Predict the structure.
Amino acid sequence: MSDKKFIGTGVAIVTPFRKDGSVDFKSLEKLVNFLINKGVDYLVVLGTTGETPVLTKDEKQAIVNQVIEVTNKRVPLVQGLGGNNTMEIASALQSSVFEGIDAILSVTPYYNKPGQEGLYQHYKALALVSPLPLILYNVPGRTGTNLSAETALRLAKEFTRQIIGVKEASANLPQVMNIIKDKPSTFKLISGDDAITFPLIGLGGSGVISVVANAFPAEFSSMVRLMLDGKTSEARKIHYKMLPVIDLVFAEGNPTGVKAFLDVLGIVPNYLRLPLIPASKELYKKVELSLKNFYQ
């Protein structure tokens, strides 16, 4: 595993749907090519932004297969595979074919709310059987459980080859700094929160797995690249230009906002699957105005 993989801007890609609710594979192809052509560093398929909880097993596999085919090894690919049943996820890791996938992003168990030792044992079980490197995913706002800095570091140091990074979406900067301060040199601290990616990279982070970059891949990738190159002043300008857009992307939840942006851009239609619903008329109008102002 190259140490340069998963540095920079990864995009948690949306799953396009048609009006009848079926997966829109034509728009998915369009989105993947748009992102790669605009300079993103890697793609994440079957993440939260992809509305994965409402996809069938067959749909998930078909989506992964198409993303692999369209990407054609132009950028690395990460596949989301996590849950709150450790044995089920371990079995899927052992039985699935991951040809064309470079790493697995695995969210902390949700709903059953394990403690830190339970989280450690969960990821240990996955690390021991996974055929691919694992990226931990800490998003307590969705899961109800926080992966502490101590547990993340314990896993990073014990499974140096198997566990290569953590996507941190806790918005807890002291926790993030404690991970960065004591992590192995090859372990990547990846932002899971678009709004604080700029300062997080300044603290020593490796980049981002982004939502907003679905719609603004060139701009957000440029900001991340400038920060990684130490060009803080130039990156700061883009960061502050992006902030109002990021606010709109998450104003009514994810991926509601970013699908509205993608619809206005003509890349992905504005359809979601229940229990999620499309952006309100008020938000959609703000998205249209925001795009017009952004490119003036």
